[in-house]
Description:
Four copies of one chain form a homotetramer. Chain A is α+β, with helices and mostly antiparallel strands. The first copy, chain A, has a single domain, classed as Roll (Thiol Ester Dehydrase, Chain A), CATH 3.10.129. In chain A, about 15% of the residues lie in helices and about 35% in strands. Chain A has two helices and six strands. Chain A has helices at about 35-50, 135-140, and strands spanning about 15, 60-70, 80-90, 95-105, 110-120, 125-130. The longest helix of chain A is centred in the first third of the chain and has 16 residues, at about 35-50. The termini of chain A are close together. The relative contact order of chain A is 0.24. Chains in contact: A-B, A-C, A-D, B-C, B-D, C-D. The interface of B and D includes residues 68 and 71 of B. Strand 2 of chain B pairs antiparallel with strand 2 (about 60-70) of chain D, so a sheet runs across the interface.
Amino acid sequence: MKMRSLRREDFEFIIEMEPRWRDMDGLRHINHATYLSFLETVRIRYMEQLGIDVNEWEGENSSILAGMKIDYHQQSTYPNQYDIGARVVRIGHKSFDILNALFEENNPIPVVTGVFTVIGFNYALQETVPVSDIIKKECRPL
Amino acid sequence: MKMRSLRREDFEFIIEMEPRWRDMDGLRHINHATYLSFLETVRIRYMEQLGIDVNEWEGENSSILAGMKIDYHQQSTYPNQYDIGARVVRIGHKSFDILNALFEENNPIPVVTGVFTVIGFNYALQETVPVSDIIKKECRPL
Amino acid sequence: MKMRSLRREDFEFIIEMEPRWRDMDGLRHINHATYLSFLETVRIRYMEQLGIDVNEWEGENSSILAGMKIDYHQQSTYPNQYDIGARVVRIGHKSFDILNALFEENNPIPVVTGVFTVIGFNYALQETVPVSDIIKKECRPL
Amino acid sequence: MKMRSLRREDFEFIIEMEPRWRDMDGLRHINHATYLSFLETVRIRYMEQLGIDVNEWEGENSSILAGMKIDYHQQSTYPNQYDIGARVVRIGHKSFDILNALFEENNPIPVVTGVFTVIGFNYALQETVPVSDIIKKECRPL
């Protein structure tokens, strides 16, 4: 599936967020790295909604980001209003992928899409752990 | 007036904003500098509401931050919901002060308060300019 | 080539940078998005060294980020000292790829690697433009 | 003493730091809040040099920022090279003030100066504690 073709309807979990003026960089568009802090918050809220406690992030049954593939489809700027979707799209034994897409108002084409590969991780032991059943059940491939 | 005594009722202009997970630092509270990006956005929206175009910020009739006095009254953390007030509290010939206060939900005591001294500034000429009448009319001292 | 196998020797252009305390997030490691601001600065300095003026970024012969693939191989924390390499590794007609790798002291394995796909872009016309010859000559595929 | 009159010679502890491209905001100068992350890192390194372990920051004998007074004397931009000084200038029973000044190359006038009021703090008990003797000895008022 082409990432640019993703639409709001492809997501059941969507959060609204607004940029701050400081999210713009010297080119007066939202900085490429700043979008990732939006997406990070949305993934955390998505995990919380599934019953995974983010305050236990440093614990035994946590996760760590292994990689990401990001596509920038359009520029966006401040002020704005974003809808940001999250969806588990792949499950492996010890890793899974979350898809994120960020949309601005009155525009069906995403500004940014990303696939984040997350590994089950025990921070205390600094060891990988299997993906939890909660996340397995949530998976809905593209 | 003691800054800690400021309440939501002291502000006519209030904006709601939410922190992102990344706004926390290594101590797991919202970083002291990050609050300033919230307050900056609120001051910009306040100025816009008064009819001052932030997209003309690099123009002749703009302003520049000369200084600020910030008080931290409490810690706050993610997740949260902030009410942030802004109010012009002093007018000089070429400068004015904006007061900001940031409150978290269910708590009358501000998390952070700040007084920002702003100078009328012509970015093209890099020269100070008098404070606009719009801002003079808005002033409501503490 | 496996990104984890990249070494300092794979780069002719390397810049030293240090993290700030604030670059850590609530997990007390450098935040995944913050690395991208290091890499961005290194790419800009790399382009400047090739004779491309970053102050002309909003001009006719500029570029825009289309996407990136990032791999996180290890965690790192503050304080630290990074060596960050940049290298053009692919040229297309209107786009090219820059490889970045970030290493910490006394460790041959990269902390983060990334491939950034950049499109020649005219900001004035908001149109794509061909990749400059300077960048074509610089290309050294993996 | 006028903050604008501060010079490098007023500081025994000085750290060099460089801005990143992302430290600029939409006005293409270093953002007012970003300077505070530079100063924060310098204060931490200053405390470490005095033998205070920043990794014990969440412990019994730590400190918390109560307020700050910042003056912006000039604009600065990327690229740059900063010298940033730190000096304890006031000791109270449970609080002390650290002065910071940030200078850019070839310019004796500071870009930013700040006085940070820090309170001795036990994070475990969430209680104030007396200022340590190490800091008392370091004090050199303006």
